[in-house]
Every structure is written in structure tokens, then in C-alpha cells.
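Worked Example 4.2. Read the sequence first, then its C-alpha cells.
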Amino acid sequence: MNSIYDSRQRLKYLFIIAAIFIAIASVFVSDLLIKDLAREEREKIEIWAEATRVLTSEDPSLNMNLILKIIQGNTSIPVMLCNDQDSVMNYKNIELPEKGADEYLRKKVEELKHKNQPLPIDMGDGTFQYLYYDDSINLKRLLVYPYAQLSVMAVFILLAFIALASTKRAEQNKVWVGLSKETAHQLGTPISSLIAWLEYLKLKDIDPALLAEMEKDVKRLEMIAERFSKIGSTPEPVPVDICQSISSALEYMQTRISSKVKISIEAPDHPVIVLMNNSLFAWVVENLCKNAVDAMEGQGSITFHVEEKGKNVRIDVTDTGKGILKSRFKTVFNPGYTTKKRGWGLGLSLVKRIVESYHGGKIFVKSSEIGKGTTFRIELRLFTH
């Protein structure tokens, strides 16, 4: 059965694709606007060049005031007027440095040569002057605009994604807490009844060994109810030898799974102390064992390897099951994900919640190979006095 969140994942991807399409369309439209503005500015420069030509004319009938006004009207476009030897004759809207002005102008001419196609000015005596110009401030701002727009959209997409993920987690939290509290409540009555029946059966002629096993299972139910009641609250962690905690949980599991499954633990011969809730962590061990047994179809081996690494302790849980596809390494922890025909697919999700939310650790699929097995890794902080 696929994850119940597959449809939500598809919607997220559709949203991202739509956002990318909008961004591309925005860049395309902005590019058209920039080209139109550049064309308009060139036309202005052509008028400016014509005004410069007329200004040098000896025709007294020309309206000199108008020409000067046109020339002086350029307040935003950097321009340089040069002769055919590229010597600067005049310039406008260019700020010169305090030192090395001549060298700066020479370099500026070379820069503007490659910036826009220069405008030749026929002086009428067989000589030409050339007008070099740069993009205006407004045009430069428009050139930057699409990238700024893309950045804003990227931030928007990221925030939307985070908001969606947070909403989903909050929704899951409510479901988890409500389901857990209700389960603990519902288990209370039958457990009390079973305790009473056990006390009654002790008065009868029944094999004490059978009653002892029944009593173990009833105590087990009490512990399970206690675990469910703690979901949603913050359990008080205490220093515990994690090797002993794992061994105790595995001892219980060994007698309740197939005899064809071999469980072993590789751990240091000294206590490895971790600040944790022993009852909840035992739940992690049991769920990982059950998940491994299902993956191996009741036959194979499970190994718990414990090692200290700096300030952390690593617990690698390796089985010889059917393995997990690499694309599913993260998906397996989603509530509702399961490959079994029966079940809710909550085991690994619960494991992740206990390890990360209640113990501040990490759990992930370290490695997996189809047909050979899987290794889950848990990382927790060592307890220091």
C-alpha cells in the first residue's frame, strides 16, 4: 500500500512546477520591457546626437535654445563624445575620480565601445565624431529586476513549503496525541478485568507456570497503556545503560517471534549511559524488531550494534530482509506507509517520533540492498555528569 500522503506530495510538486512557470513567464515579459526601453533610449540618444551636429552648424536660423535644452535634457544616460582618434571631447553623467581622470576616461571609452553600438556624427567636412553611451540607471534596475523577482518567488515558495510541512506536522501531532490517549484509555478497562481474572485463577488448580506467563503479558499490556498515555507529554528522562535497555527489550521479543529469527547484540562490555525514557525506548527496539521480522518473512537474523562515537552513541539495527529502495529511505517513516496487506503503517513513524521528539536523537536508513537487508541507524547523545 502506498503512503497516504502520496497525493499531497503530487500536489506539492504541481505547485512548484506552476510557480516555476510563472517565474519564467515573468522573466520573459520583463525581458520584452527591457528591450523596448533600450530601443527608446537609443532613439533619445540619436536625437541628442543630431542636436550636437546642429549645434556645430553655422546656420543662424537654428533655434539654439531648443538645441541646448535637448542636449541638457539628458540627466540619466552616461554619454561620451569622441573624435575619430577616440580622444574624449565631451562627456555627461559620468562621475570622475579625484585622481587619474584621464586614464579613467580612456578606460571608460573602451568599456562603452562594447556596451552599445556607437553613434557616428558626420561633421560635414569629411570627419566624424562618435557618441558612446551606457545604459541608464533605470535600465540597469530593470536588468536586475527579473533576478530580484525570482529571488522573491523562491523565498515565497520556500516559505509556502515550510508552512505546508509545519501544518502537516501539527496535524499529525494532533492525530497522534488523540489516538494515543484514547488507546490508553480504552486499554484500561480490559487490563483491570484481566488482572482480576488472574487473581481468581490463582485460587484454582492451574499450572503456576502458565499463570506466570499470563501475568507477564498482562504487565506488558499495562506498560503499553502507560506508553500510549505518555505520547503528547514530555516524559522525564533518566540516565540509563542503553546496552542493558536494548538487551532487556530483545529478551522479551525473542520469546514472541519466530524461532527461525536469530537476534544478537554487539555492544561494549562497559555501561553506555544515555539520558532517556527506558519504557519508550524499549518501544523503539520492539518496533524495529517487528519491522525486521516482517521484512524477513519470519526467517533470518537481526543484529543490534552499539558503539560510542565522540559525544554520541550509535545503534545500528541490521536485518537480512528484502531491503528498501533508495527512493523510499525517507518515505518509510511517514505515517500510513506500509508494504504489508494489513496494518496501519505507524510503526516506523512512531519510532522516529520517540527518537527525535522525546530523546533529541536521529534515526535514518543508513544502507539497504534489495534482497540482502537493511540497516537503520539511531544516534543519541551520551550522558555526561
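Now turn to a second chain, presented in exactly the same format:
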Amino acid sequence: MQYISKEERKIDFTDPQGKWTDLTILPEWEEEFYDVYTAKKYGKWVMLKALKEQYRDNPSYQHMLDREFETRHILAHPNIVMVNDYEVLPVIGRAIITDDVYGYSLRRLIDEKLLTPRILHRLETQLLDAMDYIQENHLAHRSITPENIIFAERGGNLKLINVGYDHRSELSAQDTVEDIHAYGTVLNEVLDNMPGQYPRLRRIARIAAAGDPVRRFRTIPDLRLAIERKSPIAIYIYLCVFVAAMTTLLCWLAFR
């Protein structure tokens, strides 16, 4: 992908109210139905998500954007870009307004060979935290990809952006395994472009991205345990030993 300069992406428009300035499109973060922008609202940088021009006047797509706002504005997680407001702007129409995330997408970091062990560690921890939160809140969403994973200031905190959310009463087992498959796919591509060898993580990525869902990790906690080099059996044994030790101690205290 070719990354063009910010000036080349800037949209020429004037807001009669003086509220909005410096509207700039971010083509690397576009989606099938949406464009993503940065802009200043009363001088403060924010990000915007709006329908592409060909969909703006279509009630079905407007309703789709409405529903995403209704779901996203109640979310609160440090690794998911939070929604602040929903407004109609000059030129681009109705838009979801979020905090500004200054940084690079994982896709760009891969393409420009800027991956580091720190970024890999963020994928092992912060991405799993965000995915766990999404599943605990029964949020269906589009697939997680390098395009919608952002790192603040190249190697800082990870943020999920523009994966879209739809709240459900519960998620199906298929939703869970598809998330795990997406994680394995992302991890595999990162490892393909990282210097050095990571055999343990490569094995985890291979299991997570297995073509047969039965061979994948069943849940995000199972995946996390594998990454943390723990196993449910080891934890069970530890708990049994702990309970036995506490029982012995209590008996000794009782008969002193």
C-alpha cells in the first residue's frame, strides 16, 4: 500500500460555524462502507467515521451507522477507541466522533518493516484484553485485521479502531472461534515479518488459525493461558496442592 502525505489527503472545505477545521481523510483505514478522517473540533483533534459518498443518503446504511454508534458509545476499554459523539458535518454528513489516535496501523508497521518485540508483546497482551472485553459484552464485529489495529506513536498502546460492533444477547461458538482464527492470522503475519524466531508463538498462531475450528483454542482465556505458558491442568494441580496445604495447616492449628 502507498501511504500519501497528510497534506495530499486534506479535504478543502469551510465550516460556516467555525467548529470544524483540518478535515483529512485516512485512506489506509477505510472500510467497505465507511471512510475514516481526522479533524479538529473547536481546535482539538478527533477522529471521524462516516459513510462513503455513495451510501450517505441510503436509509439502510444510515441505520447501520446509527446502530454502531448506539453500541459503541457505552463501551469503555483502554485498548478500544472510544466514541464521544455523533454529529452531521459539512461535506461528509453524519459521522461517529472518537478520540484521536495518533500512530501507525499494524498494516503500515508491517509494510514499512517497523515491527519490534514491544509491538509483538502488545499483541500478546493488549489485543487479547480487548478481544476478551468484546466477547464478555457479547459484541459481534467484523474480523480483526492489521488494518484496524493501531499503535499510538508507532510502539505505544494498542487500540482497536473501526471493527464495527453490534450487541447481541449472546455470542455463538462460531463467533468465538472466528475471533481466535483472526488473532492467529494476524499473529502469523507479524511473525512472518519479525526478525528472529519465535517457535512457541508460531505454534500458538498455527493452532489459533487452524482451518478446522475443532483444532483451534476454544476460548480467549484458553488462548491467553497458552501465551502465558500455563495450562488448565497445571492450574488445577496447583489449586489442589494449595487446598491440601491449607487443609493440613488448619488441621494442625485445630489440634495444637
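Notes for the reader: Residues 231-242 have pLDDT under 50 and may be disordered. The longest strand covers residues 34-41.
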